[in-house]
Amino acid sequence: MGQDQTKQQIEKGLQLYQSNQTEKALQVWMRVLEKTTDPAGRFRVLGCLITAHSEMGRYKDMLKFAVVQIDTARELEDPDYLMESYLNLARSNEKLCEFQKTISYCKTCLNMQGTTVSLQLNGQVSLSMGNAFLGLSIFQKALECFEKALRYAHNNDDKMLECRVCCSLGSFYTQIKESMKIALQHGDRPLQALCLLCFADIHRSRADIQTAFPRYDSSMSIMTEIGNRLGQIQVLLGVAKCWMIKKELDKALEGIEKAQELAEGLGNKLGLLKLHCLCEGIYRTKGQQRELRDHVVKFHECVEEMELYCGMCGESIGEKNNQLQALPCSHFFHLKCLQTNGTRGCPNCRRSSMKPGFV
Residue 17 pLDDT more than 90? Predict the structure, then answer.
């Protein structure tokens, strides 16, 4: 079956599928998969089969076709096809509750930037990763992913993606409400504070600032009462982001200044990293170049102090899905860099690296 006939048969299957003749559509697509000699056509018909089996709840079959699609994408040597196939693989594993695999495949997708489809698919990748983090009850990371997905939806006027993100946020909200009930029943003040913070972050992500502010206030009261200064930093940064949404940049800076005092007192470098990043955006908007340069320098100082880079190649750690290797001295590097270097000692402290562990 050549390229033209493959295209015609795929379209025939789509017409059948759209008229609710699902089994007939599947039969047409399976014949195309068996007979076509066109790799691009095979990739497309596999996409149809993946979507159909996802909507029918046949997730094991969905995964089977996603694996075949990956092989087809590699055969085509096209980064766009490869990114799309990794997304389908991530979604398949998400449906089967293989959340760690989902996150791994999503990270692979996000590392494939520069492809022509990456901007179209990044929102869907962020959504799938958020659902995986939600499945693992890692609420803060789930919310961060949902926020990114929502931004992609708004920036690209993608109503379907926005709808799917809102559905996921609904599930997220329900889980937090259940956690809040348990916290109230057992008088667990730290958990109450965390739930209130998550509620506030959800409302902020939906630009519902008036609802977010009182939740942040309640969370801050409990965080202050129990002495959770790390939590207070998170609350203050969340409030600052609310003021940034309202374009009240001076009020945002007031909150960031308080967060900075707490972070410096605790030596919380991650908090400092986040607030310098926020300040960079604020001062860029205000056009204050001296302050902007100051926070850019401080941001990079935090990166240096936290050693968020490979000591051999100098690249930031975490920007790409590269395997890392931790040495007994606690320094870690890109695995490929250590293999290329061929040394048995740590490039940073020169101590012996007997049996390094994998991260």
Answer: no
| Percent above pLDDT 70 for the chain | 88
User: How many CB atoms lie under 10 A from the CB of residue 247?
Assistant: 9
Residue type, 313: C
CB 192 within 8 A of CB 176: no
pLDDT beyond 60 at 336: yes
The rounded radius of gyration (Å) of the Cα atoms in the chain is: 24
Both tokens assigned to 228: 């959770």
Summarize the confidence of residues 193-220 as an average pLDDT.
Answer: 88
Buried b (16+ CB within 10 A) or exposed e, 95-134: beebbebbbbbbbbbbebeebebbebbbbbbbbbbbbbbb
- Cα–chain center distance at 27: 36
Q: How many CB atoms lie within 10 A of CB 79?
A: 16
Residue 287: which region, alpha, beta or left (left: phi > 0; alpha: psi -120 to 50)? left
For residue 307, CA distances in Å to 108, 111, 317, 357 come to 23, 21, 9, 18
Strands 332-334 and 357-358: unpaired
Distances (CA, A) of 238 to 196, 199, 274, 298: 12, 11, 11, 21
Query: What's phi and psi for 357, nearest 5 deg?
Result: -105, 155
For the beta carbon of residue 56, count every other beta carbon within 10 angstroms: 13
Confidence at residue 166, expressed as pLDDT on a 0 to 100 scale:
78
